[in-house]
Amino acid sequence: MTGLVTLVLLAGLVALTPVITALAGRASGWLIGAAYVAAAIAFIPATQAVLAGDTPEWALPWMPAFNVDLAFRIDGIGVVFTHIALLIGAAVLFYSTHYLDKGRNLSFYWLMVAFTFSMVALVLTNDLVVLFIAWELTSLASFMLIARSGSSGQAPSFRTLLITFVGGVLLLVAVGFIIAFTGTTNIVAALTDPFWAANPAATTAVALLVAIAAMTKSAQFPFHTWLPDAMAAATPVSAYLHAAAVVKAGIFLLIRFSPAFHTTPAWNGLLITAGLITTALGGWFALNQADLKKLMAYSTVSQLGLIVAAIGVGSELALAAAVFHVIAHALFKSGLFMMVGVVDHIGHTRMFGRIPQLFRVAPISFAVTIIGTASMAGIPPLLGFASKETVFMALRETPGAAALGWLALIAGAAASVLTFAYCAKIVFGSFVDGPEVPAEKLGHEDTVMLTFAALPILASVPLAFMLPTLEKLVVPAAAAALPGTDPHPHLALWHGISPELIASALIIAAGIVIILIRQRAWEFFTAATLPFNGADVIDVITRLLSRLGARATRLIGDERGAPHAAAIVGLMTVVSIGGLATVLADHELPAAQANLSRPIDFVLLGLIGFSVIAVCFSRSRMTATVALSAIGILATIQIMAIGAPDVTLTQLLVEAMTIIVIMLVLQKLPRTFWKYPKRMQIRRGVLAILAGIGVGGMTWAMAGRRERSDIAMWYLNEAPEISGGNNIVNVILVEFRALDTLGELTVLGMAGIAIVAVMSTVRDKYIDPPASEVPEMPRRPWIVLRPRGSMAHRAVSLAWPNVVAMQLMVRIVGPILAITSALIFWRGHNEPGGGFIAALVGSAIVGLLYMSTSKDRAIGPPRAPLFLIGGGMLVAVLTGIAGLIFAGSFLEPIHGYILGEHFSTSLIFDVGVYMAVVGLILVSFNLLGTSDSAFTPAGDDVLYLGEMHRDVVDHERTRERTDEMVHGELAGPMENMRGEPPTAEDYFREDSDHTRLSRSSRHIGSGTQMKERGE
User: What share of the chain in percent tops pLDDT 70?
Assistant: First the structure.
């Protein structure tokens, strides 16, 4: 299928854009724009096939269980919108090479390409699910393109996302209903299903959902506010997304769904009414604007309203007129948006009254702007005149009484007077009526910017005289919108004397009068501005919703953990005790299995109970931590006694790592727990006892009273044959339940990323406060020592001599642990082990390295943890995709033999698990363990005049390490809280002259500190 080549080219371009921008920088627009042109050329054979009456199709099963295919079908609608997306996109990208600041501009080019790919996929797909996904991708891309404009684009981008999100939800509901009603995700089959004619109520409901969803993206009243708000984006973004692409997605949706709904009265009435209101309001608000770019935005709103009204009419002529005006609007409006950048470049402002007189210094720009605005105003013999005349003809076919058609025509013509007026304001306000400014204070006409801004406008001029040829493109689109029809719109510049021609003449006459009295007219419209705008309305709605949300969360909004824990534990206690009582009262429990208890169980129970009591009654955090560790170790012994080596290894290693992290965090906490009132302690104790009774009773009643389940026996009997592995636990985790494991892996990885994200929002002084502000500061022992410089003095006053032995030990133990980790990983499919346990063993090396350092220092390269977490998740997902492609199901393992040894892709999945676990441990150690010298014996803080003070040695602290995990080595902590990138001055690397530790070195004797691992 030739049209598929276009999609493949765009998908490849998405992947290659980072490389292109790295090599070409701002000039990447030439290469990417050329790729767009190549994609358009590759689409020509498909276009020719459509014009010949064919509809090329291609489909690949995607989710067979849900009958969802990656299906694409090229018809007249897809041809029109694909060429608009590619050709206008190419012109905008060429224009951008001189508009953008010098630099890589990766976010701009990457998001533009991603948007184009999503838009082309949207207009070519023949599957409802794919259509919805592509629809949402266009929303996300446009949101990010606005947001990348900096602080000025943040609020507008979120308001845009809010409105388009509403439309996305409505479209999702509509798609769900359509699939449920018709039983298919195929768009053509669903929209031509007999269900719609037989069920008018359901048809009306779905039609309204689709119509409103499309109106949110095509900026129709009352959802029009986001488009002017989005003008915070760069001019090339506005020219492409808001004139030729994203707003056209809403128009496309209406045309695409017309086969099912074009005769539905609610569809007709809503679109015609909303479209004409939008046309009038857009024109009025455009004349209110003092900013040229905002005026362009409202003019787009107005023109889109006219197209929506034509679609609402639903006749053959009306849909042909809508497609015709889509083409004309894409040409003149994209060019005019780019001309805004040209005017701004020359006059250094977009504000009316401040824009200098430019018609003398920029005559070509003046001429191009006149042509573009004349086409938009509907002045003959330009393309905009022909398309608007056709729309007027369509409005007279409004369903219902004949008077409604005349009323629609009058409303459209009246709104078009405002169109002529704002077109005049663009020309005179930008080039004629401004102050005279010396030429040396003005910019110059950039040849590249002017050329590609003028290109779509000038291209529309000859098209006005080639309407029979253009009709060959319009007719297939109208026929696709109304299957089974044979539209003949007869596009022409002259249809004889007609009501539409008279309306156009009256519009031009009224426009000339406005030009003659333009100063008074502009003053009137400026004074007629509303005291608020759409952004203000959205802000008010947002504040009201926020207040309602705040009131709704007061019941559960307590920041303390105790109320939440009490509610959860209390409910669990009621359910467990009540359920246990009900079961014992109404049913006789099955007999317990034999040999469930052994003497060692009672010994362990007593020890665990004692440890629990120690945790509950200890005032010291350290004592509570030791007792908690004892509970974990004793539970590990219990698991081992049952005979579960896999779980035993996991429990033991997790317990060890958890306790180490807790000990690191204790550095930042007071040494003792807060002493609560006795009454509160009694209440909590009673709740804890009842909870223990409830959970213990439920465990006693429901566990150990049945034989092995059927599924357990199936795993035991069948899993070795299916998977080739004898370790049932590991096989379940990485093969049969791999999707669950992937979910847990994702949670684990996101936990590490969340730690970094949270820490990066807190300033350094709040994470690691000055020494003098830390309560319960331990005092250093001041005892009589040998003179400074002696070994005895260093052994007590310095930390590094005391870790020499441990560092030498790590050199022996580290490789042993690494080999052990590799062996556990390798054997996991057949014997106790696997990626998770192996990762924990490997993480023990990290723990030993951390504890063998003489001062608080990060282990490993700064960015390694996040690379490991992200890389591990990526490896796991790619393994799943390989299963989908080569085995037919996501995460299904692929088995094979290499040198006679059985291998499975689940081994690669385990590599991802290994990487992510090690990454999380590194994040935990390197961030949670940091402190301002920690006031520990290894610290460098000193007691002076009764207060602790930071010594001259400055250590890496939590915020600095957090920033370095994202950006690499830095000179110190960053002060931002919103993710701003570091400046060049923030980067710094200091080289150390210290030597490495070896068996022959004499660091302790000489008193010279060695260079430690990682430094």
Answer: 89
Tokens of 201: 């109520």
Per the CB < 8 A criterion, the answer to whether 843 and 918 are in contact is yes
The separation between CA 962 and the C-alpha centre of its own chain, rounded to angstroms, equals 22
Which residue type occupies 357? Q
β-strands 947-949, 942-944: how paired?
antiparallel
- Pairwise CA distance, residues 60 & 65, whole Å: 13
Query: What dihedral do alpha carbons 92, 97, 102, 106 form, nearest 10°?
Result: 60
3-state secondary structure of 519: helix
Secondary structure class of 929 (helix, strand, coil): coil
| E-state strands within 607-649 | none
Q: Give the model confidence (pLDDT) of 580-637 as tens digits.
A: 888 888 777 888 877 778 888 889 889 998 898 888 888 888 899 999 999 999 999 8
DSSP state of 358: -
- Under a CB-based contact definition with an 8 Å cutoff, are residues 390 and 489 in contact? yes
Q: Which amino acid is at 663?
A: M
Q: How far is CA 439 from CA 47, 436, 443, 444, 655, in A?
A: 48, 9, 8, 9, 76
d(CA 35, CA 37): 5
9/5 Cα distance (integer angstroms): 6
Contact between 646 and 727 under an 8 Å Cβ cutoff? The reply is yes
**Contact between 957 and 767 (Cβ < 8 Å):** yes
Q: What is the pTM of this model?
A: 0.69
Nearest CA-CA partner of 504 in 604, 615, 608, 416: 416
**Residue 943 forms beta bridges with which residues?**
948
Q: Dihedral through CA 23, CA 27, CA 29, CA 32, nearest 10?
A: -30
Beta-ladder partners of 944: 947
237 with 200: CB under 8 angstroms? no
CA distance 869 to 918: 8
User: Token digits for 890?
Assistant: 């996501």
User: Helices in 804-852 by DSSP H: which ranges?
Assistant: 804-827, 835-851
Contact in structure between 424 and 338 (CB atoms under 8 Å): no
Q: Is 223 left (phi over 0), alpha (psi -120 to 50) or beta?
A: alpha
Which amino acid, 22? A
Helix boundaries (H) for 289-379: 292-313, 316-347, 363-377
Closest CA to 55 of 133, 1, 17, 131: 1
Q: What angle do CA 952, 954, 956 make, to 5 degrees?
A: 170
**Residue 1015 predicted with pLDDT over 50:** yes
Tokens of 532: 């608020």
The count of other CB atoms within 10 Å of the CB of residue 840 is: 24
Instruction: Report the half-sphere exposure of 612 (CA within 13 A, side-chain side).
Output: 12
pLDDT band at 367 (very low <50, low <70, confident <90, very high): very high
Residue-wise pLDDT tens digits, 824-842: 888 877 777 788 888 888 8
- Give the pLDDT score at 714: 86
Q: Which amino acid is at 395?
A: L
DSSP string covering 237-279: HHHHHTTTSHHHHHHHHHHHTHHHHTT-HHHHHHHHHHHHHHH
Q: Are 423 and 388 in contact (CB under 8 A)?
A: no
- Rounded Cα–Cα distance for residues 292 and 336 (Å): 10
* C-alpha closest to that of 963 among 946, 943, 977, 948: 977
Say how far apart CA 229 and CA 163 lie, in whole Å. 12
